[in-house]
Design goal:
Fumarate reductase; 5-stranded mixed sheet; Fumarate Reductase Iron-sulfur Protein, Chain B, domain 2; alpha+beta; 2Fe-2S_ferredoxin-type; 11% strand; 2 domains
């Protein structure tokens, strides 16, 4: 396939960016989207030009690094798929593809298509963990957890923190991400000791980072590559209201 790429180029955070057009030729339909970008960068290097910076790591749909906005959609046109697992057979010969970074104040652009998602790390550091001593690894049947609860906790734990929910939301809200992390621990007995402080601290950090408010449109869940459910936002809201109603923190 021969394609036209409209790629966002931005040298650094302080310099204004712009869309630059490139042509790529002889792209195999079996290539992944990132392999196609590798071809583009090889062409740019051979021409003595600066390659396009983009985030990637595992290229197996696990790490959540490949955060690209493709033709106006997080991770591109295929539902339930990360950019690295998106294949060029989803496009046609002669297509024009627009590639941009995540757009959110809390995700500043490092360079070109690479963004700084460390705001997510700080939210996790605020409370997305179990700090109490849980002892050694218990037998799998020692802690009785109903299967439906275990399944819901596991589904929340599949969040890969890619930020697609933020990019898809018109308010750049991080509620789906935060709700997945809160739900995962709130549903399990290991998370109960810090249940109230966890949700208070993580919500406070989310607001501090500058993410927008949730308006329940659902675009976050629709574009999530691993299918995190909106039900988690309902759990987060319930946890937060309960925590604030009984909290010693009156701020």
């Amino acid at each position: 396939m021969n394609l036209t790429l409209n790629v966002w180029r931005q040298p650094n955070r302080t310099t204004e960016g712009k869309i630059v057009e490139y042509k790529v030729k002889d792209i195999s339909p079996e290539m992944s989207f990132l392999e196609m970008l590798d071809v583009l960068n090889e062409d740019l290097l051979h021409a003595g030009q600066d390659p396009v910076a983009f985030d990637h790591d595992c290229r197996e749909g696990i790490c959540g690094s490949c955060d690209l906005f493709i033709n106006g959609r997080s991770h591109g046109p295929e539902k339930g798929t990360t950019t690295c697992q998106l294949h060029m057979r989803k496009f046609s010969d002669g297509d024009t593809i627009t590639i941009e970074p995540w757009r959110a104040n809390a995700f500043p652009v490092n360079k070109d298509l690479s963004v700084d998602r460390s705001a997510f790390d700080r939210i996790i550091q605020a409370g997305g963990y179990v700090s109490v001593n849980t002892g050694g690894v218990p037998d799998g049947n020692e802690i009785a957890i109903p299967k439906d609860i275990a399944d819901r906790a596991f589904e929340a734990a599949t969040c890969i923190a890619c930020g697609a929910c933020v990019a898809a939301c018109k308010n750049a809200s991080a509620m789906l991400f935060v709700s997945a992390k809160v739900s995962q621990l709130a549903l399990l007995p290991q998370g109960k000791p810090e249940r109230k402080t966890r949700v208070e601290n993580m919500i406070a950090q989310m607001d501090k980072e500058g993410f927008g408010a949730c308006s329940n449109i659902g675009s976050c869940a629709a574009e999530c590559p691993v299918g995190i459910s909106l039900e988690n936002i309902a759990i987060l809201n319930r946890e937060y209201i309960s925590a604030k109603a009984t909290s010693n923190n009156l701020a």
